Amino acid sequence: MALLPPDPIYTIRNVDNQPVHSLEFSFLPGGLERLLAGSKNGYVNAYSLQTNRVQQKILVGQAPILNIRHTDSHLITQEKGGKIKIFQLANSGYQEQACFETDHVGFCRFAINTKLETLYVPAGESKIAIYNYSSEKMGYLTPNESCKLGDPMCLKYVEFSENPYLLTGYENGWIYLWDLKTSQCISKLEIKQCPMSIDYHLEQQRGICGNASDVIQIFGIGKQDLNLSLRGEISIKNHGVNKVQSHSDGKVFASAGWDGRIRIFSWWTLRALVVLTEHKAAVQDLTYSEQNVSQWNANIMAAGGLDGAITLWNLYNNKQ
């Protein structure tokens, strides 16, 4: 591990110093590169990655914005309390296209299939509701076990051999793998405590699960039979992980902690490479840019938290 943590390449103070609950990079035609920040006061603030200043303020509602996803043509938001809004991109602005309420009041973020324009949204009685971008309900994923799984806590859309699946972590400590073509659970795994966040890297054939404990769990999905299995555990200094996220290159993954620490791990050794200590309160979300940000000519990681700070990091070349 490094003796001293590196500095961020830039730190943005969110508008009115509002706590940040969600982040999403957006790359639009014409070289428009932005970072969207979902705030406690119901706004999504769009920051230009050329100037690092707020370029647009989008009023979504009155509740914190728990999740943001941006596609080539849509902005989709999720508010605390369960409301989902879908905005159509028009002339660099956003026009509300659909809005629907869900019966989920927790912190589970929706998952998305951008190819089919489909949302997977936590619902009551351990169900996952399926919606299209027009807010039409397409069906449910419904567990058939008699045991109580509790609420869905985290979701991750994955594809194997171009077939769609959904990883779901439940309140009572289970991970299910749903086949979205048949709406059936094809594998399940019992883990420690209530999962708070889940991610999976296809080439590594391994996933990560963070929870309220001081342990991050590593799991696998069999290449042939798609069976879930526990592969290992990583101990961290302090309890609580809000988000786990693998880098697309499969070299590293990161965790966002209740203690304000961002921990970067090697996929190969499962050991911490560095602990980033810039944030002074819990880190709520972190995400990576899917392409290079032109100002730094690099793939950038962004993190945001309750301290109202948004930090930008170049993980592979901190010296600018």
UniProtKB/TrEMBL annotation:
Q: What is the organism field in this record?
A: Eumeta variegata (Bagworm moth)
Q: Where are the WD repeats?
A: 276-320
Q: Which UniProt keywords apply?
A: Repeat, WD repeat
PANTHER family, A to Z: GUANINE NUCLEOTIDE-BINDING PROTEIN SUBUNIT BETA-LIKE PROTEIN 1, TRANSDUCIN BETA-LIKE 3
Give the signal sequence positions.
Answer: none
User: Does the keyword section mention Repeat?
Assistant: yes
Taxonomic lineage from the root? Eukaryota, Metazoa, Ecdysozoa, Arthropoda, Hexapoda
Name of the molecule in the record: Guanine nucleotide-binding protein subunit beta-like protein 1
Q: Which domain of life is it from?
A: Eukaryota
